[in-house]
Amino acid sequence: MPLRTLLLAGLLFITSGLGLALAQANPNRQDWEPLFNGKDLTGWDIKITGQPLNDNYKNTFRVENGIMRLAYDQYTSFDGKYGHLYYKKPYSHYRVRFTYRFVGQQTKGGAAWNVRNSGVMLHSQSAASLSLGQDFPVSLELQLLGGLGKGPRHTANLCTPGTEVYMDGKLNPAHCIDSDSKTYDGDQWVTAEAIVLGDSVIHHLVDGDTVLTYQRPRVSSYFISDEYDWKAAGIQNVDYWASRANKPLGEGYIALQAESHPIDFRSVEILELKGCTDPKALNYKSYYVKSDNTRCQYGRKK
Fold this sequence. Notes:
The chain is mostly beta strands and 302 residues long. It has helices spanning 3-23, 238-243; strands at 33-34, 44-48, 61-64, 67-70, 83-87, 93-102, 117-124, 140-145, 157-159, 163-167, 170-172, 176-177, 190-197, 201-206, 209-219, 253-258, 263-272, 274-275, 290-291. The protein has one domain (33-275): Exo-inulinase, domain 1 (Jelly Rolls, Sandwich), CATH 2.60.120. It contains two helices and 19 strands. Strand 10 and strand 11 form a beta hairpin. The longest helix is centred in the first third of the chain and has 21 residues, at 3-23. Keywords: Signal. Residues 31-270 form the 3-keto-alpha-glucoside-1,2-lyase/3-keto-2-hydroxy-glucal hydratase domain. It comes from Spirosoma sordidisoli.
């Protein structure tokens, strides 16, 4: 082979290798993705009790000045209009992080226990699958509570509409389980996070500290209790959920809850922990804990 041809071939090999290295971003760098674009509700579905899918009753969900707001200034009374805003894509293994604050006063007609009360639903059923009169989705609720100036009131708790979890190796039948977070009084911004690992373990964090951990989430045999069953919760497809009783709950949607007290979200972002685990791929990430190599992208044929 002539020297010139050999040098050219070597140069092409080096260049292609360099191109691959440049195209393959640092596999250790965490690629957080915003779920809220700071402009509008693109990518989100709305479901409010008694209203059809994506009927934004009285403009409950809105974006103002780069902040996602769950507001009630157009309501005269709450009237049981529980609402949830669902991101369009389901996830199984991920970290979701958000910054929120409670503002103002609870709207008239809201339950006393809903003062400075909201939540972020994990592993939720989809917005489209809710019955018309269903108040809450089957999900794991990372419950958000604001302080009332009357002593401790923890946030990032767990409530379990239609679900149940294990803690310390035992099934915990409680509907709501308290975290050990500190209390956040007033209208201050708080950053919370959930680390969700399918149907194995889930951690709740506040300001970077782990405040609650539970394992083996699954669908329950009732919605909240034997008395407050699927039918009482406004669910029409009772047979479907009854057939799923005690089955692991390993994936679902993320939803933000509107429960009668105004709340703002400044950011909502996700870090997927499931993806390409082939180190030869352009989109390989070292921090993935669950493989899905159907997502792998390559610069050229392997």
